[in-house]
Amino acid sequence: MTRSKVGDHDVLVLAILGGSATPLSAYQISDIATARGSRVAVAQIYRVLERLTKKKLVRRVELLSAYMLEVEGTNAVFVCAKCRRAMGLALAGLSEALLTAATDRHLDVEKQVVELQGKCPDCSSTNMLP
Ligand SMILES: [Zn+2]
Fold it and tell me: Which of 6, 26, 108, 118 is within CB 3.0–4.6 Å of 45 for a Cys-Cys bond?
């Protein structure tokens, strides 16, 4: 097996996430890569995801234990419990307000995750049918 250039897997993972309607787990990304003829081990996918998350190109959705493309300015995510689609939300001042509230209480914040779960408009309207 030839060794891939650094970055090839980054591009592959970004393309797979970009083509998915829902956030994907490392296992799902590995399966899709394999189906496309690029076998990439799950451990390698995790390393790529970690790197892309640090670069703020990818966001981990904790509610789904999955990953989606990051949208600049997003500081919260809404996840549909029914169809698993996720939508980035941008609320000015949210991150700062949370950090201020925490530091006012002398809490040392290491990570900030704001996620909402519910039903998207498509899934809500489906429920309205008789
Ligand atoms: Zn939905």
Answer: 26
Please state at what angle helix 42-54 crosses helix 26-35, rounded to 10 degrees. 110
Indicate whether 116 belongs to any domain: yes
Cα 6 to averaged position of ligand 1 atoms, centre (Å) = 36
pTM exceeding the 0.90 threshold for the entire prediction: no
Distance 100 CA to ligand 1 centre (A): 33
- Residues of the chain where predicted confidence (pLDDT) is lower than 50: 1-2, 4
Domain that holds residue 38: 8-128
Q: What is the CATH number for 18?
A: 1.10.10.10
68 touches 49 (CB < 8 A): no
CA 81 to the chain's CA centroid: 15
